[in-house]
Design a protein that fits this description.
- GO terms for molecular function: adenylate cyclase activity; ATP binding; DNA binding.
- InterPro entries: AAA_16 (IPR041664), P-loop_NTPase (IPR027417), Sig_transdc_resp-reg_C-effctor (IPR016032), TPR-like_helical_dom_sf (IPR011990), TPR_rpt (IPR019734), Tscrpt_reg_LuxR_C (IPR000792), WH-like_DNA-bd_sf (IPR036388).
- With 953 residues, this protein is mainly alpha-helical.
- The strands form two sheets. The protein has a five-stranded parallel β-sheet with strand order 4-5-6-3-7, with helices on both faces.
- Helix 19 (414-429) packs parallel to helix 21.
Length: 953
């Protein structure tokens, strides 16, 4: 074995006499000052004649040897005689090799050395051990002794026994023993590490360097790059040195590796059974490296794999976790760089297959498919497309584009290639719009099968939310429709229909006229075209606001024509469209879904049918929309329309949490609709703080689509009015109405903004605006003809009219609303009518009406309305109580008005002073005349005076 010693020269001026000092200065070890300090703290004990020892442990490359030699140099400078031996893997079978190194280093020049066999046993075992001890003891007679054994875990068995033999025999000698060992290295021999360390050792663990130490080794200034390098290598000095020449400008340290380091790691693992195979499998799997996958990819029996993993974890080659991956990214990259390209690609393909079989997330499978270049993996195309879809909608277009480019490397059918190209265009559109346009043209040129191409374009329209993405989808669909035009209207109608819907929902202005559009494609024979025609006729009726009966009829036809969801196992006999969930796609389109639910909310049978159509097994097209979200939202809207606010809010809240998980609450139109509906529901429930908090999360700037922004404005307007910010709420509601008019939306039941705007105008003292809004609402609702909007408009009219007109409007509103499920609107109308009766002095009527209003509003959960109705009810009951200062039973209001009339005030003056209508004043005076037994106002003063005198007696 090679003998390692520190060259010394005598320093006659040293206080210990003939001590030695190093000829060369102690090398600087960045970041190892604490460890060297601990070692030098042991010097005084040994210099004072008492043995000391230390064990220096660390993983491969942590600088154990360098630290040992630096400590030896410091020891020599302090007066120690230094002897260092090194264990070697290739010489561990040679008996006495390390002991011979130490003996040779301690020999006095010019004196005869003991024969080699004398230290190698076991012929004269006790004599050999005693000889080694005498050599050490004689060396201490010449001065303090520093014994360093590097890589003691690789020492031969006999040398280990020699070290263990002197352990208790040097306690009173000036000896410092320092051993270095690879952390976690399994013992190969009969002697334990601590048995060789002499007295109770100081255990010093070399950990990774910090940022400052890493920066010094790399020659960098402290900063983000040095930190990234330290993270990639764990601060391991050897790995940092290997990383340094590869650290070119712009390089990411986490992506760098060295094939030389990979070879070294592979070689060092050779001594442990199955460790090389596990090492390669761990490098391939990365963060996916759980036990089962490691064993299967390595092709190793589970028990053997467990033993290999245990050893590698103890050596810090693998992390001590549920997924024992390689400890540092630089080490993993190095092992991968050492693999031949084909080997690496095949292993990644195998890893992808294993992960797919275990149900791993698509993105994890796709990560391995990306690395499996030149390997044909047909089944991976669907995984790559799904991963790309998720990446785009989570704001990561770069990996999405990479997934899809990899998918294009497979042998694809014409239809599959069109689908992948269009999806790639969407991803590239966010990075390079001109390149995306080229992808669309390439996809159009690839169109082969008409039905497949139309289906793919329809899927693209359904999967993109809105804004610029929707414009890209509309452009692509239009080009494909033009390509398919030669096949006649039946071939292209469904695609044109979906394109029309997408354009209508994404435009900032009025959509194209549907009736002109429809005339170009008649007559229609295909069932899907018939369904589309009925659906779009319903949409046109809604936009025109002409006839609720016509709109509901067309919706019903579309629902009755919609095919049932597919059955499992029948994909071979179904078209591409049928294979993904029947013919319910129209109702999944955001624009269409929103209008359909707004119209059908008061139609229980139709809303149930709609939910069944939407309740398909597959995931929705839009990745932001959770599975089952659309039927849940539709039922919530129906519950809200029926006045069941508590159950509706439960539907909306549970759904909103799922949108939050997918990041779609503020971006996806369906998520925004759900949030706006929940705010509206909370306003009626009186949960103003929760509604405010939710609206604060919404992006009113980004949500510029017809429904997203309009619904948000309406919900915010209602909240502001309800919480006292009437002027701001009034402006929101007017803005909501302007947007609907700009889009040509005349359907009054979409959002009843006029009803709430009229109330706000009254509160602001703008009576003329209130009257105008109420009259416009009556006109629009009467034209539409549905009970809910008409009853709501009549209630608003009752607020702005006076006396008999107001009462007739409110009575008609109640009659109309009783024929609909709109219980909350009915409770509102009852409250307004009861309040009007109370103002008119008709307390008996008021009490009965308000009692119904309280019961109904409480049943709905509408706490603000219930409180108001209850307050009006208490006031009406108090008004029935006779005034205590007259004998004729005048109510307090009657007595007050009669006194004011007796004082000479006119009915107009009394009405103004008491904030009543003149008709109300007249009614109260008529009641007073009847109770006082007088014909009119002329006798009023005398009758009141007589009553007061009678009370005085």
């Amino acid at each position: 074995m090679k003998v390692l010693t520190v060259d010394t020269e005598v320093n006659p001026e040293h206080p210990l006499g003939g001590a030695s000092v190093p000829k060369r200065p102690v090398p600087r070890l960045p970041g190892r000052e604490p460890e060297l300090s601990r070692l030098t703290s042991l010097f005084p004990a040994a210099l004072g004649g008492r043995a000391a020892s230390a064990v220096l442990v660390g993983e491969f490359g942590m600088g154990k040897t360098a630290t040992l030699h630096a400590a030896a140099a410091l020891a020599a400078d302090a007066g120690f005689t230094v002897a260092i031996a090194t264990g070697s893997r290739l010489e561990s079978h040679l008996a006495g090799g390390v002991a011979r190194q130490l003996a040779d280093a301690l020999a006095v020049p010019g004196t005869p050395r003991p024969p080699t066999g004398d230290l190698c046993g076991p012929a004269g075992e006790s004599e050999a051990l005693d000889l080694f001890f005498r050599i050490v003891r004689e060396a201490t007679g010449r001065g303090p002794l520093f014994l360093g054994i590097d890589n003691v875990h690789l020492a031969d068995a006999w040398s280990m026994r020699c070290l263990a033999y002197i352990r208790h025999r040097v306690l009173d000698l000036p000896v410092l023993i320092v051993l270095t060992s690879l952390i976690g290295h399994p013992p190969h021999n009969e002697v334990a590490l601590l048995e060789m360390a002499g007295c109770t050792p100081a255990t010093i663990t070399l950990n990774g360097l910090g940022d400052a130490g890493a920066a010094e080794i790399l020659g960098l200034a402290p900063g983000e790059l040095a930190t990234a390098c330290r993270e990639a290598t764990g601060g391991n000095p050897y790995l940092l040195q290997a990383l340094r020449p590869r650290l070119l400008p712009g390089a990411d340290p986490h992506e760098l590796g060295s094939s030389l380091i990979g070879q070294v790691l592979h070689t060092r693992m050779q001594e442990f059974p199955h460790a090389p195979a596990i090492l390669h499998a761990a490098a391939i799997l990365g963060e996916d490296a759980d036990f089962d996958l490691l064993a299967r990819l390595a092709g190793v029996d589970e028990l053997d794999a467990l033993q290999a993993i245990d050893t590698m974890v103890r050596l810090h080659v693998l992390s001590n976790s549920d997924r024992p991956a390689l400890t540092y990214s630089f080490a993993r990259n190095s092992v991968l760089k050492d693999m031949p390209r084909t080997t690496r690609a095949v292993n990644h393909a195998r890893a992808a297959k294993l992960l797919a079989e275990t149900g791993a997330p698509p993105e994890r499978v796709a990560a391995h498919l990306l690395e499996a270049t030149s390997i044909r993996i047909p089944w991976g195309v669907d995984v790559l497309r799904l991963s790309a879809r998720n990446a785009v909608f989570s704001g990561r277009p770069e990996p999405a584009a990479a997934y899809l480019r990899r998918a294009l490397e497979e042998r694809l059918t014409s239809g599959a290639r069109v689908a992948v190209l269009l999806q790639l265009a969407h991803a590239e559109f966010q990075l390079d719009p001109p390149a995306a346009a080229m992808r669309v043209r390439e996809a159009v040129d690839t169109v082969g099968n008409r039905e497949t191409a139309a289906f793919i374009a329809t899927a693209m329209l359904l999967s993109l939310c809105g804004g610029q993405d929707a414009r890209l989808a509309i452009s692509a669909a239009g080009q494909i429709a033009a390509r398919l035009d030669a096949g006649g209207p039946d071939a292209v109608w469904p695609l044109l229909c979906m394109t029309y819907l997408a354009e209508a929902g994404s435009r900032l202005g009025p959509p194209p006229e549907f009736r002109d559009f429809e005339e170009q494609w008649a007559p229609l024979t295909d069932p899907a075209a018939q369904r589309s025609r009925s659906a779009l006729l319903a949409l046109d009726a809604v936009r025109s606001g002409e006839s609720a009966q016509e709109a509901v009829g067309h919706f019903a036809d579309a629902l009755s024509l919609t095919a049932a969801p597919p059955r499992a196992g029948d994909s071979a006999t179904r078209s591409p469209r049928e294979q993904v969930g029947g013919d319910g796609d129209l109702f999944e389109q955001h624009y269409f879904f929103t209008l359909a639910t707004a119209v059908l909310a008061d139609e229980p049978a139709h809303i149930d049918r709609l939910c069944r159509v939407l309740d398909v097994e597959r995931e929705p097209w839009d990745v932001h929309v959770p599975h089952g979200a659309l039927p849940t939202l539709a039922r919530g809207i129906a519950l809200q329309a029926s006045g069941d606010l508590q159950r509706a809010s439960v539907h909306f809240e549970s759904l909103l949490r799922r949108f939050d998980e997918r990041g779609g609450t503020t971006t996806c139109p369906v998520g925004v609709l759900c949030a706006a509906k929940l705010v509206e529901c909370w306003v009626d429930l009186g949960r103003f703080e929760a509604a405010t908090s939710l609206l604060d999360r919404m992006d009113f700037v980004a949500s510029q689509g017809l429904f997203t922004h309009t619904y948000l404005l309406y919900a915010r307007g209602r909240l502001r009015v309800a919480t006292g910010y009437t002027r701001f709420g009034f402006e929101d509601l007017l803005s909501c109405g302007r947007r609907l008019a700009h889009h040509g939306m005349r359907f009054p039941g979409f959002v009843p903004w006029r009803a709430h705007a009229a109330r706000a105008a009254l509160a602001l003292g703008q009576a003329d605006d209130a009257v105008r809004l109420a009259e416009e609402d009556i006109t629009a609702s009467a034209r539409w003809g549905a009970p809910r909007p008409l009853g709501t408009a009549l209630t608003t009219l009752g607020l702005v009219r006076e006396d008999d007109e107001a009462e007739r409007a409110l009575n008609k509103a109640i009659t109309t609303l009783r024929s609909s499920p709109a219980r909350l609107q009915l409770a509102t109308a009852l409250t307004e009518l009861g309040t009007l009766h109370a103002r008119h002095g008709q307390s008996e009527k008021a009490i009965e009406t308000l009692r119904q209003a309280v019961e109904l509003s409480e049943h709905c959960g509408a706490r603000p309305l219930a409180r108001r109705a209850a307050e009006e009810l208490r006031s009406a009951r108090r008004a029935l109580t006779p005034a205590k200062d007259n004998e004729h039973g005048l109510t307090r209001q009657e007595n007050r008005i009669a006194v004011m009339a007796a004082q000479g005030l006119t009915n107009r003056e009394i009405a103004t002073a008491l904030h009543l209508t003149r008709r109300t004043v007249e009614l109260h005076l008529s009641g007073a005349y009847r109770k006082l037994g007088i014909p009119g106002r002329a006798e009023l003063g005398g009758a009141l005076a007589k009553s007061h005198r009678a009370d005085a007696r």
